[in-house]
Amino acid sequence: MSETAAPIDVRAVVKRFDPRAKPALDGATFTVQQGRRACLLGPNGAGKTTLIRILTGALAPTSGAASIFGATPDTRAWEEARRRVGVVPQLPGMYRDLTGCEYLELVQGVYGRGDVDAAAKTLGLTRKHLRRNMAELSGGWQRRLTLAAALLCEPELIVLDEPTVGLDPVAAREVIAMLRDAMKSRTALLCTHNLAEAEALCDAVVVLRDGRVVLDDTIDAMKKRAPAHVSLGAAQGPQAIVETLRAIGLEATVQDDRAVMLTAEPEQTLPGVLRALVANNLDVFECVASPPTLEELFLRAVKDEPRP
Are 226 and 297 contacting, i.e. CB atoms less than 8 angstroms apart? Predict the structure, then answer.
């Protein structure tokens, strides 16, 4: 195991469950560098859960390699590397015969370190919660308990598989706030379908489609390359703006009583746009340029990106 190796390195990973069917993973390749908070996105069946299971050692790839801190499950360094990782599974996997406190003590014993009381306090788990059997806790408190277990050993890397799935909006908001604090000083890989959650917590994106990585980049870089949405409003109405822009060679559409156009360089384009509108006696009262959302970038990646 190398101290300088990337926390996550996935190289040409293929996973076949049935040799006659399409592979669940088909040459997936990406790296998560130290300190990066990456979200793993993709439509249903893209291979996200399979990849998480391979990264945590629950599955072996058919070919290729997935390492954490330079170690793979077939090496002697794996156990030491695995102790540097905290995992929050999609399904908490409640032990019906263990209390919350007993579960955290079990995790402490597996890792050989960690402060149970400190981890519980950080996640707001009181004695009342820790004395109850795990399966008796509500979904929100179960998720807090699994997050406390993942953070108990002060891991360098945390892997989170749909951490808010099945939670009501209030519980999900609380868990997201806790995750934001937990991810601040750590490398993280978050697998989620919630794009607003991904944008709030992560700074990079890995998009899977049909078992392949079709996008691997930072969110900031993606937004800089994508055109900005410009919303324009005038007293004469959006259609008057659309017709004026068309006359100078620019395309716009009408959306929600506003004219909307796309431009890759709003700082250079919009002054000329505003001059043209004013010169045509339009009373402009709104001109707002907004970067694309992560949802828009994701949909573009899974819909338009050609298969390698």
Answer: yes
Q: Which CATH superfamily is domain 8-222 in?
A: P-loop containing nucleotide triphosphate hydrolases (3.40.50.300)
Q: Is pTM, for the whole model, over 0.90? A: no
For tokens 């402009």, what's the residue? 284
133-187 confidence digits (pLDDT tens) = 988 888 888 888 988 999 898 999 999 988 887 778 888 888 888 888 888 889 9
7-17 pLDDT, tens digit each: 999 999 999 99
The fold adopted by the segment(s) 227-290 is: Alpha-Beta Plaits (3.30.70)
Find all residues with CB under 8 Å of 245, minimum gap 6, and list them: 251, 252, 259, 261, 273, 276, 277
